[in-house]
């Protein structure tokens, strides 16, 4: 005689408290999973140590946002750093808000939850914008039936997705497109961009090269012990477009002595600080100024 196994039902979660109108429950940390394709780095740096100390003293004040998975676990939408701190501190459970939403909405929420962080690298922002742009395209590009029964694309808004993202995030559509282009950089060049060994605008130029051509640039940078200027990357990109690029020609450009451009104008950050957010880097300020001038003199 065989016994029927009783189905194990998950015990009903009793809300601990309300947080901004949503119910907060406790979930075991072992059931939490990182968001698939999460573009933000979870680093054990000084800010993480400060967050760990804060959680040790005060607990997790802002609940994590999670979404149920088919396997019965939970995918983190917001709170990867808090989850990391909880693991460091040996916490078995953390407070969460459980939300159920379409995949596209979960990607957009995940990206938005971190995009306004003061400390964010170029690569993080690039892949975040790419994920959000693709999710919004899928969301607004769903098909619907027209009056005559044919399927048609439903866009919702006449704006391009990068323009909608621009309205929400503050960067211009052109700047968002540049960031997304950076995702075509090989990892080694992306790393140089993140650590300041390669400037933003030259990096965008290099992102239009093939992987092989980018590796030629990387080797030439190591050989010359220098990063390419914007005028140099323009020339390299032109050679690539015309099919005349070679490993040797890239190296020749990189070893050229860089000339100081005539008529260079400089401003101190203090002179410009009242016009830009306090966390803007000099490179971001320069990019914004150039974009404003381009709009004025179109």
From TrEMBL:
PANTHER family tied to this protein: CHROMOSOME-PARTITIONING PROTEIN PARB-RELATED
Name of the protein this chain belongs to: ParB/RepB/Spo0J family partition protein
Top-level taxonomic group: Bacteria
Family: Belongs to the ParB family.
Gene Ontology biological process: chromosome segregation
InterPro entries: Chromosome_partition/occlusion (IPR050336), ParB/RepB/Spo0J (IPR004437), ParB/Sulfiredoxin_sf (IPR036086), ParB_N (IPR003115)
Domain annotation ParB-like N-terminal: ranges: 25-114
Gene Ontology cellular-component terms listed: chromosome
